[in-house]
User: Fold these one by one.
Assistant:
Number 1:
Amino acid sequence: MIAERNSAASSIGANKTKRTAKVKVVTTIREMEIVIERWRGNRKKIGFVPTMGAFHEGHLSLIREARKTCDRVVASIFVNPLQFGPQEDQEAYPRDLKRDTRLAAQEKVDVLFVPAAKEMYPPDFTAQVKVGDQYIRTLCGKNRPEHFAGVTTVVTKLLNIIRPHKTFLGQKDYQQVLIIQRMVVDLNVGCEIVVLPTIRENDGLAKSSRNSYLSEEERRAAPAIYQALKLAEGMLQVGERNPKDMLEAVTKRLRTESLMDVEYVAAKNAYTLEDVNILAGRILVAIAVRLGKARLIDNIMVDVPSGS
Ligand code: PAF
């Protein structure tokens, strides 16, 4: 089950150092394996932060925690084609390797692993790793049947190449985290998954690389997502136990923003992602919306005492 750890977030740029820090950029699997072999031989504890790049404070909080708790830190940047559907934003996905490299150096990442698609998926590649449908065919997987198999396939490859002791993921992608945890347990991957809290803008909007797609008007509407989650939390705290009533109120709040196209609003058992008849136990409240070109997700977890 997802265990959260706290992290302090400082803003990008606030952490500038005078030294001209450099980070080693590795693009081939073979070179990455040689580095890992050496570190493992020297009994170094390896921390890993998998990303698709376009770093924001959420990524940096993961890197900082890895830096604090491990001897060596690898961050990967790979916009994984397997997890994008045909109509999705793979081509448009924000990329800025120069800026990411600078930030990685500032945060003292030891290696930035940036493989090309043909390095990860040569023409004869056929494998797929996926967990059970109850995890991947709901929420963000409902209308995207291949998405989470794409995620678990690439993460398996990355974990096999980097062989980290700890991998750091953000709670914003709660379903992804649960799925990766399931895969790591089911397949006996010897790696601890460390989950850190969602990093937010001052107005509550979860940091995401896709926020860069928002127009000014859309950006003004976007905090309604977190406000709707807080509304759910408040309702649970004052005793709401009927999922239908709560989800209706949350959806209504989102729809006050006319630009927002609600994809789903859901209340689930946070351990299994099953629907609940009564809001009790650990409840995941999750939202996905489309706002212009951006598909944005967010969630909160609420522990609702049973029988209250
Ligand atoms: O969350 C992401 O950035 C990606 O899904 C991940 C985990 C790096 C796999 O491509």
Number 2:
Amino acid sequence: MMKVRFAPSPTGYFHVGGARTAFYNWMMARKAGGSFVLRIEDTDAERNREEWVGGILDALSWLGVSWDEGPYRQSERLGLYAGAASRLYEAGAAYYCTCTRDEIDARAKASGGKAGYDRYCRDRGLGPDSGGALRFKVPLPGATTFVDLVRGEVTVDHENIEDFVLVKGSGAPLFVLANVVDDIDMGITHVVRAEEHLPNTPKSILVFKALGAELPAFGHVPVLVNEKRQKLSKRRDRVAVEDYRNLGYLAPAMINYLALLGWSPKDGREFMTVEEMTEAFDIGAVGHSPSFFDEKKMAHFNGVYIRALGDDAFVEASLPFLARNSWWAGDEGQSAAYGRLAPLVKERVAVLSEVAELVRPVFEDQLSLTEADVEKEIVSNPTAAQTLSDVAKRLGEVPEFEPAALEAAVRGYAEERGLALRKIQAPLRVATTGSRVGLPLFETWAEIGRDRVLERLARFC
Ligand code: GLU
């Protein structure tokens, strides 16, 4: 049976690249009827924070990447790594080394040779009581070859692999040891992970072999880059899944977009359900080159998903984004008004955090004005004041304050003045909604209500 794992280290917000890797693993497991293990690699106490663990679990759940086993925590499995380390030492596959970083650097400098560890303690016969670090004894001469599921054949000469540290002098196991011991213990058959781990893989393979375990298949998915082709970084780019969730991305849109970074189905389809993607997914069809994480394109995807929501589902999804605003009371009146506007709102947003700005003029008591728009459409428009007071008069007389009647009133006025409706609408819109852009004006007025529309117009007459 196929068994895959996702093994994040909780050292920061959960990254979009991690989400993609997790989803690829998840699809592989689902498609093969296999199992998906979640393992938190939290042995590095200095860099891990408990809150990041919660963030990872929340983000995965939100995205629908469910796990069949776990979450396991490496910090709770230290005995297992210590046992494996002793076995490697006893078998002569690892040795103790007491060299300090400074000694290693000084020797490298003096010999003018390669930087890095020179296998100095390899044959010194130091034991566990030396207090040194445990290093892996890379078999020499030799080479390791493996066929990466994504990148094809990779060969590394052992001369180029340092005798890497498995356990620090402090007793703390390092990544390669804990990672491989767990993959063996958990019966992982396929290791699909980020490309940055490709250089670790020959080391991992050597440890698998030294522990007498069968090798899993390995696949390394390409890095994500920004528009400048720089590797996405949490300092420079928006990378946290949580941030996108807060901006109002829908999980199905996000997972669909992320899946297409580096992979596409044979028929080139873009918009797919999770089931369709899972059916079509093939790790062998993932590309080698870095993929451009294009936030604009993801927003476009999200807009398509938003418009595909039923009106009720859209209202439900967007309510939390209204609830963040002081003007939103969520009472019956507001809810009913929002329900009527929602189909118009749905057509005009790419992410749900844009909803509030569109409906704010309807719910806000003290209308906030965009000064630049007031300046352009009212203050520096010589006919604006006239328009506002004339239209105010007519709106006072409209029998039913509803969209069709309001449109007829304003249209009639524009015709009499020989002005385009568009021209007339601009100052009216700024005066009553605060800005030049927004929902269709007459529908908006109907929800604001006659008294408040007239009040807002009066401020400028
Ligand atoms: N803990 C590693 C990371 O977060 C996972 C490496 C792996 O998947 O093997 O990058």
